[in-house]
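Backbone shape codes:
***
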Amino acid sequence: MKAVIAIDSLKGSLTSLEAGEAIKKGIMKVYKKAEVVIRPVADGGEGTAVALTLGMNGKLEKVKVTGPLGKEVEAEYGILEPSETHKVKTAIIEMSAAAGITLVDEKERNPLKTTTYGVGEMIKDAIAKGCRHFIVGIGGSATNDGGIGMLQALGFGILDKSGKQVSFGAQGLSEIETISDEFVLPEMKDCTFRIACDVTNTLCGEQGASAIYGPQKGATPTMIMQMDKWLAYYAALSREKYPHANMNQAGTGAAGGLGFAFLTYTNAVLESGIKIVLEETELEKYVKDADIVVTGEGRLDGQTVMGKTPVGVADIAKKYGKKVIAFSGCVTEDAIACNEHGIDAFFPILRGVVSLSEAMDTKNAAKNMAATVEQAFRLIRLMDKED
């Protein structure tokens, strides 16, 4: 028996690796001599940097950067040394570590003030440590500054009428007169960026960054109209300098316009988060000769089939005709859609009526996971013997 485990985190309960270890424990109780391979996976959201870094034998770095409201915060990101998979030193970054909405108290949320400057500082720190390839998750932002804060930290001149850097936040967009790349970090020309982006919003308009995501970041209707107008002007100025700039491209509105900044000002591509993770971790190489593939996430539901980790894993497994089973903290009725997208069977791990805090306790979750997996694999072994 060779089993490959590629499960997302059970958010707030088990990390991808912790869930994988619990599953391995359950399998090994049934198949004593099984070969069990744990590959970390995530969909590009919260926890991706830690899961990939630790799962791929990288190291975590901590750096003090400018937080969304201008105060210093400590941000963590991962570094992978060059390997067969990554020919150059690679940084794995979550923009939310420096500019995430969870870093801002609800009463203080104001996209006119919040900045992506710290994201640029994280990239700058990684460049100084030799990184030239970047995997960046841009979910969970507190910002709507079009990425100008990040660009300023990297040396771009986002200048006002006096030739000074504009203010932090979306209000800085209203001050832009000229854009300069004279003092950009010279190493930037050698850097490539894969941006995990699962939204298709454009920079401006009814489905743009300001209109769709502004309210949750503290924007009033008046702010939304102002920011939309400012972003459009910023995009026009950007296009004058970089003709490939396209504010109507899908994903440019991600993270308050950070998607636009990456596409316009760096050597970047926006891609599905799970696509990036599965390719960068080379999951396919491990799945090819597996007997069974195990996946899952915290909650299996109808949304799981919309580009979430378990179905991404199942897609690869089915290329090679592999059986796929999934385990989850909880399962909804509409999770049955997963059966039509490559997951042959799925199981919730809760084994009794308990409180939410008890269910999410790390020790309880690991114990429940291992016990549920053991019973599922007892059935698999029984069916193998009958065959």
Summary: The mean pLDDT is 94. The first strand starts at residue 2 and ends at 5. The longest helix spans residues 362-386. The CA atoms of residues 79 and 86 lie 11 Å apart.
